[in-house]
Amino acid sequence: MEIKDWDEPGRNKKVKTLRKRYVPLCFRWLMLIVTVFTYIFDCGKNANGILFFVTIFAVLIYTILATVYAVRKDGKSKGVYRLFAYIDVLVISVFSFQLGGINSDIYLQYYFVIIPWGIFNFLPNVSMLGLFSIIAYSVVCIYASRDHLVEFNYWKLICRDIFLAFTTFYVSLIYREVKKYDEMHKKEFRLARTDKLTGLANRHYFDQKLSEEVEYSIITGTPLNVLIFDLDNFKKFNDTYGHSCGDKLLSLFSDIIKQNIRKNDIPVRYGGEEFLLLIRELDEEMARSIGERIRGQLEKQKIYVGNDGNRQRMTVSCGIAQYPKHSANIKEVIDCADRALYHAKKMGKNMVVCFDSIGKVNRTVQLDIDTYMEGGQ
Fold first, then answer.
1. What digits encode the pLDDT tens for the residues 267-283?
2. How is 237-263 classified by DSSP, letter by letter?
3. Helix or strand (DSSP H, E) at 267
4. Which CATH number is 215's domain given?
5. Which residues have CB under 8 Å from 199's CB, separation 6+?
6. In terms of domains, do 148 and 262 share one?
């Protein structure tokens, strides 16, 4: 199970999303404006005015619809954006046909599609887009000169197609380098915020994320639960069976935690044999049931120690506190959870104690002691 936002900072994700949405969109509007000016100042004499402006109007409607889709919150479908790229190529091909085919420089707008989609939007099949552009441009140029094929400048067309092909090739190389760097960045970011042994968040990530979780709790008006786990008698286990078995136990317990939480819950290797879990939105009783489930699953497990097949049972204690119920200061809430954990240890270990029930635990344990003493008498 992976923690939300572990791959990269939230700010970088937002920047990348905006870039994927709006960079091709800006080029699309630029393409439309350049085409109009090209018609007015260069190739207007070669085009059918009425047909050209009908095409401009149709493309304007398409561009507006693409813009509306891009600014919508749910406009995230990769398939739709790839379709837009191929429609852009067809639009340029239509303009190229109307403005003189091989005699027009409007073909340069193919670069407006290939470059941004290949670099900024990380289009995986940019080579296919380049090939589609070459085929579309070649067809419209030849068709536009169908009555004068004998005089048609094939070398000019071939040279332009070669330039498009080389552009696509180099954009593909740049895409691979950008992707390689991006993956390295994600890996480094994940390693910097992940505990190597358990795969859980480390203390550095927890310190960064804590304020965000508190802010979410304030905005939504929902509680934030803090659960602190501490493996019982871990030092004795480590000294008896060795650090390799201790590491195996820590890894086992972290897997149990991952199996019992939601995607937006944040499990942390808090230090040594201590683990912390942030659970948003749930009430204290639900958080306690999660803690009990984690505790119970570890209790049922028996970890192999040594080479003789010997298996050892281990337990864990847990303390729970809730923000803002127990304090408006999250640091104090963590301290409350730690105090609840201390009481769980003091009262016999292998139990889950909520901060509110510290007094109840004391009374229950004292009652058990009194009952035992009376039975002994």
1. 998 888 899 999 998 88
2. HHHHH-HHHHHHHHHHHHHHHHHTS-T
3. strand 266-271
4. 3.30.70.270
5. 254, 258
6. no
